[in-house]
Write a structure and sequence with these properties.
The chain is α+β, with helices and mostly antiparallel strands. The strands form two sheets. A four-stranded mixed beta sheet has the order 6-5-4-7, sandwiched between helices. A three-stranded antiparallel beta sheet has the order 1-3-2. The chain is elongated and about 60 Å long.
Length: about 210
């Protein structure tokens, strides 16, 4: 997480709330009991219980009882769920982890983005992290840099590598993969939407950022 993003998140969300929302919003399919969440967030169970009750009362979490055990899960039907999940994916999810892992190769990478279910916010427990890298870097070098993330994220990381010219040519010639990436949700690790649009010659998008 960049210093700017970190300070903004700290301002908007107190530390405990930020940590527990990061777990629950980034794994909306999972339900956690209190002690498990306390372990995942490094917080005291008593303090965390009060925070979870506040979030449940606000409608952001589902609270279910199974025998003597209470479980908490993100409430995907809450009006703010999609927006909050998107914010936390950018600040606590795969994007900052990828950015840190690829930092040694930064000079060789022009654009990098996450696509697929992870970018759409619909990953299953077994979903991979699909990453498109546009640059002049060797695939073996790229794979080596990303390998530690398998353990960090608990998911396989699948890089797709092109030079910027190769991807632009594919997009201009109607390549199915390139057009699919351009049309659907993306999380940018390096670069922005307008830079990708300029690369492939999509002036309608690029002009909105002039």
């Amino acid at each position: 997480m960049s210093n700017t993003s970190s300070s903004l998140m700290d301002l908007l969300f107190p530390g405990i709330r930020q940590r527990v929302l990061a777990v629950l919003l980034l794994e909306p399919q999972a339900a956690f009991h209190l002690r498990e969440l306390a372990r995942r967030t490094g917080t005291h169970a008593g303090t965390l219980a009060r925070e979870l009750e506040k979030l449940s009362q606000a409608g952001l979490l589902l609270r279910t009882e199974q025998g003597n055990q209470v479980r908490y899960q993100a409430q995907p039907t809450h009006p703010l769920f999609a927006e909050l999940a998107s914010v936390f994916r950018k600040t606590h999810g795969v994007v900052p982890a990828l950015r840190e892992a690829l930092a040694p190769l930064d000079a060789q990478i022009r654009l990098c983005l996450v696509f697929g279910s992870m970018a759409r916010g619909t990953p299953s427990a077994g979903s991979d992290v699909d990453v498109l890298v546009l640059g002049k870097v060797g695939f073996a070098e790229l794979a080596q840099a990303l390998f530690p993330l398998h353990a960090t994220l608990g998911r396989e990381v699948n890089p797709v590598l092109y030079t910027p010219k190769e991807f632009a040519d594919r997009a201009r010639h109607g390549d199915a993969f390139a057009r699919d990436v351009l049309a659907k949700a993306k999380l940018f690790v390096k670069g922005e939407e307008h830079e990708l649009a300029e690369l492939v010659g999509d002036r309608s998008v690029a002009r909105t950022h002039d």
